[in-house]
Amino acid sequence: MAVRFPTDLEIARQARLLPMPEIAAKMGIGPHLLEPYGYDVAKIRLEAIEELASQPKAKYVVVSAITPTPLGEGKTTTTVGLGQALSLIGKRATIAIRQPSMGPTFGIKGGAAGGGYSQVVPMERLNLHLTGDMHAITAAHNLLAAMIDNQIHHHEALVDRDSVTWRRVMDVSDRVLRNIIVGLGTREDGVIRQTGFDITAASEIMTVLALTNSLRDMRGRLGRIVIGNTREGKPITAEELSAAGAMTVILRDAIKPNLLQTLENTPVLVHAGPFGNIATGNSSVIADLIGIHCGDFLVTEAGFGADMGAERFFNIKCRASGLEPDAAVVVATVRALKVHSGRFRVVAGRPLPPEMIKENPDDVWAGAANLRKQVENIRIHGVTPVVAINAFPTDHPSEQAAVREIAEELGVRSAVCNNFALGGRGATELAEAVDEAASEASSFHFLYSSEATLREKIETVATKIYGAESVEYYPSAAEQIDSFERNGFGKLSVCIAKTHLSISSDPKLKGAPTGWKLPVREVRASVGAGFVYPICGDMRTMPGLPSSPNAVRIDIDDKGEIVGLS
Predict the structure, then answer these.
(1) DSSP string for 200-240
(2) How many C-alpha atoms does 536 have within 13 Å on its Cβ side?
(3) Residue 426 above 80 pLDDT?
(4) Helix ranges, 332-389 (H)
(5) Which of 49, 224, 344, 453 is the most exposed place for a label (fewest CB within 10 A)?
(6) How far is CA 280 from CA 37, 204, 439, in A?
(7) How many whole angstroms separate alpha carbon 151 and alpha carbon 161?
(8) What mean pLDDT is predicted for residues 271-290?
(9) Measured between alpha carbons, how far is 492 from 483 in angstroms, rounded to an integer?
């Protein structure tokens, strides 16, 4: 009879949590810098940045991945496991991750606290409201939306209502709100116009929170948010609508990072959660500015593959923070490499087909092109990569050995990680490899200069990171780029919105395709966040629920305990 592995929630409830002052003490943070949110969560005051600034800098490590399958490759679990393992080999480590959105938590993916014995706890609070940051972002965003419509209602001469790009947000997946009509009713109910809802993680305010370095900086960024045009065709900002001050007040507490811990009591900073497709997909700069002075290592995570989250980590987040990474981890799985061989397909939420479970190291080698390219995408920034082979029960030793051979061929370190089942001790090999890699001299550099034109930046990312032959601009996209350049936005970074299921813009193309053109159909500006995002494909900014969402299994038992959360 098969032994049932406990659920993540069951494992989390076995945790022996330390009080927050003890977790903070591991980081060199005194209790005067903490704002408790119960026994097991606290916020860290921004004064910690200045107070810790004289402490030595930790080694800065980013965890990325090969192009994932829809099922995910365990990047957060590996991030948590690496932090735990570094502590076990005698290094003071701090972990920094994004706050999960409740959309996926109640939808198809479930929570994002890691998994198995490499989790952030309390996982229920992390995956639900935590300290209310998501709700503050939602409120600040929707306040601006309300002030835009109020401006149109009372002073229609200022804002061109057909140019308004600022939609509303909520932290629940709800497909019927993607496109709506507002203002129906009497004239007193407002002006009728078409708009819609995005999920809160897709809000520009979320990315502003992730990239800001101080309360003053956040106030300035919020003021620079462009919501549409005046009737004369000039960009109009939140500052011009006198909304930025009130938005900042709403976010006064949300700007402070949240402190939690792993199952093994390693400190974890949880802050911000920007969308990984149209935004940076990285946790906050402020969390890193604190964590970088809190020990020997700061381990953070970048969303999706190295072509997306890591590229944005290097060229957007590091540009904003001024911090330079010392090493990078590329998470790979046998399952994903088989998918990239082109012989198998994975469908989210369904069991893997039997032929995928069958041992076949040749399939791993056939899918190696993606791993090679993602390792190259790290190296092109002057950062030393380490390949983490996240072990699954369906793996065979010969298949894991094949991944090691690929890494050896590339001249990079590799390690098999069993931390899902074993906790930190299952990732000590990875910790040793990361320690060695981070000790080597780094030559980190940005992929492009801020002075380059927007087209030059887009084409650099497309050709050097994605492997595209060239970029094709739709006429409207070309006009938008020209308009942004004229309006002084040309020095902004670029954050290309494309599928996460391929290095290319076509989710069906696996491996590392070449000889294709990147189609840019639209270009939008997140001026407050500090980047322009070209849209290459169909980007959903408001997910829908699946036919059997996780929400149907989540409930409260007779003792008031949450059940069904994963």
Answers:
(1) GGG-HHHHHHHH--SHHHHHHHHHH-EEEEBTTS-EEETTT
(2) 32
(3) yes
(4) 334-339, 354-357, 361-366, 368-379
(5) 453
(6) 28, 10, 27
(7) 10
(8) 95
(9) 13
Structure tokens given for 436 = 């060695």
CA angle 250/224/253 to nearest 5° reads: 20
Residue 113 or 55, more confident:
55
Q: The tokens of 166 are what?
A: 């600022």
pLDDT of residue 59: 98
Can you give the C-alpha Rg of the chain in angstroms? 23
Neighbours of 249 (CB within 10 A): 11
Phi and psi (nearest 5°) for 223?
Answer: -65, -30
Q: pLDDT tens across 213-241, in order?
A: 999 999 999 999 999 999 888 999 999 99
CA distances from 318 to 15, 189, 191, 286, 372 (A): 34, 45, 42, 12, 24
The total number of residues shown for the chain amounts to 566
Q: What is the DSSP string of 435-495?
A: HHHHHSPP----SS-TTS-HHHHHHHHHHHTS--SEEEE-HHHHHHHHHHHHTT-TTSEE-
Q: What is the DSSP track for 136-163?
A: HHHHHHHHHHHHHHHHHHH-TTTB-GGG
Rounded distance, CA 18 to CA 122, Å? 11
User: Given the DSSP bridges, would you call strands 235-237 and 34-36 parallel, antiparallel or unpaired?
Assistant: unpaired
Q: What is the DSSP string of 21-50?
A: HHHHHHTT--GGGEEESSSS-EEE-THHHH
Which residue bears the tokens 């407050």?
528
Query: Residue 538: which residues within 8 A CB-CB, separation 6 or more?
Result: none
**Domains of the chain (ranges, CATH numbers):** 21-132+256-439 (3.40.50.300), 135-250 (3.30.1510.10), 454-535 (3.10.410.10)
Classify the phi-psi angles of 374: left when phi > 0, otherwise alpha if psi is within -120 to 50, otherwise beta: alpha
